[in-house]
Write a structure and sequence with these properties.
Layout (H helix, E strand, L loop, with lengths): L7 H6 L7 E4 L3 E5 L7 E7 L6 H7 L4 H16 L6 E4 L15 E5 L9
Antiparallel strand pairs: 1-2, 2-3, 3-5, 4-5
The protein binds adenosine monophosphate.
Length: 118
């Protein structure tokens, strides 16, 4: 599996950095964000190192990983009791506000969120 030893999320996947893991499958790991913006704030992360969702969509011809991220989102939403809804966000690249260069989707919920994104 493609891994980058300098990437904090690869280090979490490898068990070399601490994290609060809430879900794991063959391809995806999910752990609580270090700086939560809502009662539930979980990061859904492919185990292999791909820099962004844009890059992943370009490589993942059968959408296997993209689908695995959505399956993970559903599982985490269920286990976190987010029956009233939640939000998925993936920041892509510099203008998208991405700060960690390993694909991740934020799952945010546990309170009513504004319909306005900005
Ligand atoms: P983004 O700005 O979309 O790239 O999101 C990166 C997210 O990763 C931020 O919400 C950070 O709080 C979170 N983060 C960075 N390092 C860690 C870590 N070691 N464990 C958990 N979350 C982290």
């Amino acid at each position: 599996m493609n891994q980058d030893p300098n990437c904090i999320f690869c280090r979490i996947v490898a068990g070399q950095a601490p994290s609060d893991i809430v879900y794991e499958s063959e391809d995806v790991i999910a752990f609580r964000d270090l700086h939560p913006v809502a009662p539930t704030h979980v990061l859904l992360v492919p185990k292999c190192h791909v820099t962004s969702l844009h890059e992943l969509a370009g490589r993942d011809e059968r959408s296997t990983l993209a689908a695995a991220l959505l399956v993970a989102a559903r599982a985490v939403a269920e286990s976190e009791g987010l029956g009233n809804g939640y939000r998925l966000i993936s920041n892509v690249g510099a203008d998208g506000g991405q700060t960690v260069g390993h694909t991740h989707v934020h799952l945010i919920g546990g309170k009513p969120l504004s319909p306005r994104l900005l």
